[in-house]
Amino acid sequence: MSNGMVLRMNASNLATGDLAAFRDAYAQMMAISDNRGWIFFSGIHGQPQEKCWHHYRIGSSNQTEPVNLFLPWHRAYLLLLENNFRDLNGAAALPWWDWTSDLAHQEGIPAAFTVPTDPSGNPNPLLQGPTIASPSGSPTTSRNPDDPGNLPTVDQVASVLGLSSYTDFSDQLEDVHDALHGWVGGDMGIIASAAYDPIFYTHHCMIDRLWYIWQLQNGVNNIPASYLDLPLAPFPLKVQDVLNIQSLGYEYANAAVALNPNAAAAANVGVNT
Amino acid sequence: MARSYVSPPIDLGPQAAGRELRRADIEFEGVDHRGASFEARVFLNHPDADESTPKTPEQGYAGSFHVYGFGLPPEELRERDRAVAAGKRQGGAREGGDAASGPAAAAPPLGGEVKVPAARPGDAGLQAVARTPARRYVIATEAVRRAAAQGAAVTVTVVPVMTDPRPPGKQDRSDEPDEPLRIDRTAIVFYNQ
Hints:
heterodimer; A: mainly alpha; di-copper center containing domain from catechol oxidase; B: 4-stranded antiparallel β-sheet; 4-stranded mixed β-sheet; 3 helices; 10 strands; 26% strand; elongated
């Protein structure tokens, strides 16, 4: 941890101990069958609980206009997952998958998520997750990734980071996010089943990181005022509660370096401190 | 997979030519996002574009948006659409969809012209979300500028390219609907300041 804060790092550069803690948290969570466990938590997003927020929609019956809480909702979702992880392994932290990096454009999904076993020879819990929502009917998730060369580029992300309007930035970043789900394919390819794949959270950690980098440039509270008091069901949080990641107890490695006048370079930082 | 959507001609008007164009967006309202996920490739003045058309300026490629679908199975979508056609109260399906083209003017506020079905008691989750037609847009300044140089009107073609939600070994797509991609309204919006 950094200054008592949870430090989120690049999934391709995790130290051995950090990766082991992360894997251990996943493995423990997948072995729990109650509402602390994997099936329950993953089921919050798509099937069966269907709480996820994507694009514009009416969130409650007293709303008259659709709103888009994609970024704050998923920030809350990751926070709760990470809290669950740390209850199981105090050293665990969510890493991000930098799909713009040169490495990603060669290997695709980070190796930690594709090797069949961990260093001890046990099944790798990051490779696949138990699921009750796979369109194939399988009890575990699977992927069908596209060519790594088709992953988003530094320039694409830089153009999104260069948008100064929150709604513009959120809409365009969500489009990049949507493309990634399609790129991974398999269970990640549709909303109903995506969150049962362990790579889901590391993908969303990158999305959250990019929002944080944008906030450093455009203001932590830069979001439509009408959103602030909206609830992020089913979490006990409102939008205004999740704007400042330091207040939530975490930060991203190298964020100060990532905040760079050259946005193209800023989006390609993949080295931990 | 659904077939391509082709808009009626959209009159660009005088805004596209002879003035400093800071930004031009191609906006789509009422995009059907209930089923499979796909990349929506947008072409200008290329009504015959398909999956094999190169994504190059010479082909009129203006950019892509991506639909992360809710994954409702094709048979369920067809049942919902039949219910709407029969006039029953149903969620999500928009019957027909005259792809009205907007003039080259500011788009209406989000939700202004998109008819959001009233929520039923207890309506939540995917049922409610899938019922809300999606609004998407592509920032396509250079493509619109090129098209404006060719003439006063453009057609917008959207080619859906499916991202496979099925695991390897289950590639049969014969049960998928073969109908045009459903988009209710297309507009080109200019930002000159």
